[in-house]
Design goal:
heterodimer; A: alpha/beta; Rossmann fold; 6-stranded mixed β-sheet; B: ABC transporter involved in vitamin B12 uptake, BtuC; two-stranded antiparallel sheet; globular
Chain lengths: 516, 310
Amino acid sequence: MTERTILPSGHTQIDHLSMKGITKRFPGVVANHKVDFDVRSGEVHALLGENGAGKTTLMNVLYGLYHADEGEIILNGEEVVIESPTDAIEQGIGMIHQHFMLVETLTVAENVALGLRSSREPLTDLNKVSERILELAELYGLNIDPDAYIWQLSVGQQQRVEIIKALYRGAALLILDEPTAVLTPQEVDEFFCIIREMAKDGHALIFISHKLHEVIDISDRVTVLRDGKKVGTHQTAQATKADLARWMVGREVDFRPEIEQVEPGEVRLKVDNISCLSNRGTSSLQEVDLDVHSGEILGVAGVSGNGQRELAEVITGLREATAGRIFLDGEDITALPPISRTDRALSYIPEERMRDGMIKDFTVAENLILREHHKQPFSNWGFLNLKAVEQHSSELIHNYQIKTPSQETLAKSLSGGNIQKVVVARELSRDPRVIVASQPTRGLDVGAMEYVHSRLLEERLDGTAILLISEDLDEILALADRIAVIYEGQIMGIVPREEATPEKLGLLMAGVKEGV
Amino acid sequence: MISDLFSMTVLVGILASGIRLATPYLYAAIGETFGQRSGVLNLGVEGQMLLGAFTAFYVAIQTGNLWLGVLSAMIVGAVMGLAMAFVTVNLQAVQGISGIGFYLFGLGLSDLLFQRVLGTVETVKGFPKFNLPVLSDLPIVGEIFFQQNILVYISFALVPLAWFVLNKTTLGLKIRAVGENPEAADSLGVSVARIRYLTIILGGTLSGIAGASLSIALLNVFQQNMTSGLGFIAVALVYFGAWRPFGVLGGALLFSLVNSLQLWVQVLGIPIPSDIAVMMPYILTILVLVISVSRVRAPSALTKPFKREE
């Protein structure tokens, strides 16, 4: 055994850490069942699995936030007990949570210093902390201003603060919980460079993700979890994307579903010369024209914040149009309130599913009747027919494969994928004529994403007109018959699926018009 | 006559008593500031003050020792704070409602004790004027600021001290973090419960002194419900002062000066109905809250019990 190396950030290296037979039960669920996991210094070990597979639970056990019911943690050959984050930090384990653990009203330096002994207790020593932050930042090319307030920083910068925070506390092993979920593609690239640099220096890194290409990109080894159990650990280089997907989901996954030819029918949704304002009162949509035919998926591609949200809201009646008209099967619905549009079989899968798609503190059954609660058979002269509600929800839970302990479970306690299934079940089961689907798979894992896609395609076969608004170009390319590109509130062009390439769409998304 | 208000003697009098009357506001509101910065709204301040006022008064007449009175008021306030902390931190009770409970408890108990132990309104010889050497001899300024009793000086000294603790110490950093994002603080090994216990007990202690300052330094009597809403105004002052000690100081001075003004209006027999005059500080409370409400942002975790998700 050689003497352990000191990392450039000043901390002792963790040669090897292993978790053995970790079992963690929550009321009604086994989140981890006899899971083994290990990581060495200098490697990036990916922990892959769908939402709810138990990845975060396992890491929360390692970080001392949860206590395992069974199993042990062995660090450099010796068993350690980690009761709290403080213990974990002492052992050189740091964790960067999916939702950043930063205090927005404090500065970078204050966030880093929080909870640590100061060199001049009881006073803070922020100048010293700042100096050290700059040293560490220099070391890993993390450009950061120690005196900036967190609320002033971009999401990517906030993540760097989290990394610095962990390094400052002597993290030799860093747990990264879905670190790329909130980053732009450019930020992801920068972030991966930092990760590689840290691995090269002898840090051990655990990368939690459900994004296959990122796992393939960054990791040396990958451990796959499914339903709380370990499926296996593999050298990433020897696994393909299809392998990973199969291990993760438990069956073959279709990345590009076959699309059956459908002859588009008459125009069902017509957006005619629509303009509207943004929340800040500035001009958003400008004279937008769109037609969606029966049996057609019209994709709306664009970089976030170019009017997608406003478009969905104007069509569903949640936002007032300042000019133009909207027709549903030929009927002018521009002046109708949202409920009348709903009653005309317009369905909406909103972008913010937790905020606009459901009521978190309602049960699954209640959420499933939100759209129809005022109608027969759920409502009789204003009284809820609970039997009908129950029957309806148990049918949908079965048909749409919603994983929930019961229909009385509160919606907020479901996983992201199942929450979206509730929304999709509610919106599609009412036999819609037009569907507005906004970012319907954002944040979902592969299985749930595939599921939502297949449901939308079924609706298309049934002759529904679907407006698919998405920032995920792969999704648009996989599903849409025609693709409209939106840029600064204007439609830059509409491209048929056969002619659409990422390059062509990319130019339109950047505001470059064809033929110019 | 109205013009009497503008004579130098009266102005100095208004200002001097304004400074003096700020004392209970300052103790209570600075204490409440600590609690709220850590995320706990304590509406029981008034009850803590009443019990503090009674205890200080009773101990002072029994022992003749004013400092012992202050100390006992601090202990009673601290115990009330401890109970409040247990209810809000451990039992995770709704803070607003449990605070009202503590207020009613303090109101009732102080009244009961008063009737059982004292029975009638008595007076005590409270803290005397303590003229600060040299400073108190300054013309006008000396009379306004430096011829007060000792509890007044301490209350004003508390303001920069509180600012310093909140902004320059590791404890202050923890308090601010716990009030804004307890999950983040917890993930860094800061004990949210310990910090909140500390701030609520500190708040109770200071409320106890606030009560004592009324009963053995300013008014030198104890009466049922003698605080008459002062503790609630102190809570409002924390909002008005945007959770900053110097903001709280500004608010406390504003209120006490208005209060002092209305007292002098009555003393001088200026023909404003006394009911209206007495109402002035309360009307002002509502006005400033309406004005200040959109201007400032409360600590994000204020009134939210913290529980580690597991």
